[in-house]
What we know:
Blueprint: E1 7-8, E2 22-28, E3 31-38, E4 46-50, H1 64-69, E5 73-77, H2 96-110, E6 116-121, H3 123-134, E7 139-145, H4 157-166, H5 168-175, H6 189-200, H7 203-215, H8 220-225, E8 230-235, H9 243-253, E9 256-260, H10 267-270, H11 272-283
Parallel strand pairs: 4-5, 4-6, 6-7, 7-8, 8-9
Antiparallel strand pairs: 1-2, 2-3, 3-5
Helix pairs in contact: 2-3, 4-5, 4-7, 5-6
Amino acid sequence: MTGALFSPIPAFGALPIPDGVEVVGIPAAVGTLTALHAPARDARGTVLFVPGFTGSKEDFRTFLPLLAAQGWDVWAYSQRGQADSAAPSGIDSYRLDTLAADTVEVARLIADGRPVHLIGHSLGGVVGREAIIAAPEAFASYTMLCSGPTGWPGRHQETTDTVTASGSIGMWNRDNPHTVGQPDSALTADEAFLRLRAERTSSENLLAGAEILRADHDTTDALRASGVPVLVAHGEFDDAWPIPMQQHMAERLGASYAVIPGGHHSPQLEAPEATASALDAFLSTIH
Length: 287
């Protein structure tokens, strides 16, 4: 079970928490960052997931037990401004280097300073890359899951326009007009959760994240120079970064590379068993 440093907190939303998974608060410098933790007896190492754009720790709610069953002590946290984590004001509070500093801090807290296996999903992969470059000694390995080397102009401009005009909930209402004005009881459990998350996510987090996805520059060479072993993995149908771009990044890194059968941009949800197998195969090679 989690040590005294981390206090149990209520689950965010009404989705059930799987057996063996704890909901805890991590006392970070920014405030409480909320996390899910699936401990394993005699764990082979500690694994930390960083969620992506518009996401939260709940993106890994049902996946953590799969890796825990393979002997890993597994964590996922909501980044600042996501769901029920601390949400400081000001877009400057969500700069890439600041988000990465949170990742380094969380990694050091959850493993008592021992190196952590970091897995960054989508925008979380960009954050994780920055964290590895900043503090390679804090990490045993790094997996970029459905993430890529650079942003590009115009990306998520519609997101920026919508959030600027209507706040974070504006994105949800734009893409899910059938839910507008409906009570939770009229929605599926997943819809009710996702709408709540959209309401609670910081608009400044989204505006800053969209800008990162447009303007992020290529630091592949710096990641390789860190010396941290890297896996580049994505679903076979991933469309958030062009797959050839991800494959070329893996070649430049000299990284391991895995295509997850049946996976799209969130293979931990779309193809969980195949994703767990690919991650475990890589993590098991790190000594």
